[in-house]
Specification:
The protein is an alpha/beta fold. The protein has 14 helices and 18 strands. Helix 4 crosses helix 9 and helix 11 packs parallel to helix 14. The radius of gyration is 21 Å and the shape is globular. The relative contact order is 0.16. Bound molecules: pyridoxal-5'-phosphate.
């Protein structure tokens, strides 16, 4: 079906931006949106408007942070009030301690926190803490798990040649202390653990790799093995924190890490991240053995935003998580059912408030299955959906927020039905 979808404003903006802004975007993946990276002028609740005036139901949510949707009242009020008093002090201010207390109240394993600005940064802080606390060097990570763009964790080409840099310009030496294991394979982890492993870093639910869940037995056995080895277990909850439950994946799964990395939803759209964990391990920061620096660490506006997010989620939990579960379940169901038997069959894996869709496959259970998916087909399909008023990430992660409504899902069902017509034989 032909839909009139004017993207001329986005197109001319992208041309202009590309002249002086490298790749025309501020984070590489945004350039992959088809037919053109859309330029947005406004967001409110579950909706986005682009510079051409098109309205979209947003399931990208700025790549995850917008757990309360775009510009929720609670956040606007808290941030505006803080802005009037000062945006950032580069010094202590009372909201920092209040936020650390709120994190320790809500995240089961958290006793002590340290703030940074992005998930990437906080992962590096956690690794440094683990190395200092253990006096060891190596880090184990898992195939398909994403932990930011820094050289030691941004790996690709996991095939027979082993891990390789994920980007041009990376220092291959930076990954010399990184060991990659298979997810949900206890034998793989067991054989990689030795007396020089400082940290085992994992997404407790591997959302980036495909929303791939490990078994309960695996997580428990892995936690026990890591502790027995004297290594630090780090949960990267940058996506799952405050999203899959108030206390994150660790609360939902009943397995506690030693350190947790938080980001995205913590700030509700403002750049703030945290490492939170056992006080005896965080002691290496507390007693200054580990240098923890950053001009914007604990920036007042971002801290005010994070406090507003936690306060609001505490107010509406646990019911809100049942709702996020239902919303993502309905979205996944619509995507799978509507595309069944078409030339764009989708398989969707999900957890509370988040999912991961794959095109060209009917089921995804493990990392190897994700390699069978047709990434280009999915990208093209997201362009079709865009023309029908649905905004998705060009790679398959799906997010819903507390602002999404059943009416949004009704609209989405119709839009997907219309977009799928051209894929029917
Ligand atoms: N860890 C996980 C699990 C992520 O999904 C991401 C980002 O997508 C990061 C770390 C890096 O966070 P940021 O993009 O805020 O640097």
């Amino acid at each position: 079906m032909y839909v009139r979808h004017d993207l001329s404003g986005s197109t001319s903006y992208f041309k202009r931006a590309s002249r002086h802004l490298a790749r025309g975007v501020s984070s590489g993946i945004r350039a992959e949106q088809l037919p053109v990276p859309v330029a947005f002028s406004r967001g409110s609740g579950s909706a986005l408007w682009d510079v051409d005036g098109n309205r979209y139901v947003d399931y990208a949510l700025a790549y995850g942070p917008l757990i309360l949707g775009h510009s929720p009242d609670a956040l606007v009020a808290a941030v505006s009030e803080q802005l009037r008093r000062g945006s950032t002090f580069g010094a202590n201010h009372p909201l920092e301690a209040e936020l650390a207390e709120a994190i320790c109240r809500t995240v089961p394993s958290a006793e002590m926190c340290a703030f940074s600005s992005t998930g990437t940064e906080a992962v590096q802080v956690a690794l440094r803490i683990a190395r200092a606390a253990t006096g060891r060097r190596k880090v184990i990570k898992f195939l398909g798990h994403y932990h930011g763009w820094i050289d030691n964790v941004n790996l690709a080409s996991y095939g027979e040649t082993g891990p390789a840099p994920g980007s041009g310009g990376q220092d291959p030496a930076a990954m010399s202390s990184t060991v990659v294991c298979d997810w949900n394979d206890i034998g793989s982890l067991r054989s990689a653990l030795d007396g020089d492993v400082a940290a085992v870093l994992m997404e407790p639910v591997n959302v980036d790799g495909g929303c791939l869940h490990a078994t309960d037995e695996y997580l428990r056995a892995a936690a026990a093995l890591v502790r027995h080895n004297g290594s630090v277990l780090i949960f990267d909850e940058v996506i799952t924190g405050y999203r899959v439950s108030l206390g994150g994946a660790q609360e939902k799964l009943g397995v506690q890490p030693d350190l947790t990395v938080l980001g995205k939803a913590l700030g509700g759209g403002f750049p703030i991240s945290a490492v939170a964990g056992r006080a005896d391990i965080m002691a290496v920061v507390a007693d200054a053995r580990v240098a923890h620096a950053g001009t914007y660490n604990g920036s007042a506006v971002a801290v005010a935003a994070a406090l507003a997010v936690i306060t609001e989620l505490e107010r509406i939990a646990p019911e809100v998580y049942h709702r996020l579960d239902k919303l993502i379940g309905r979205l996944a169901g619509i995507l799978e059912e509507t595309t069944k038997g078409t030339r764009v069959p989708l398989a969707v894996r999900r957890d509370t408030g988040v999912g991961h869709a794959f095109a060209g496959v009917t089921t995804v259970e493990r990392y190897a299955d994700t390699l069978e998916a047709d990434i280009e087909l999915y990208r093209r399909f997201t362009a079709d959906l865009l023309a029908h008023g649905i905004h998705l990430m060009p790679k398959g992660i799906l997010y819903v927020s507390t602002a999404h409504t059943d009416a949004d899902l009704d609209f989405t069902a119709d839009a997907i039905e219309a977009a799928v017509r051209r894929y029917r034989n």
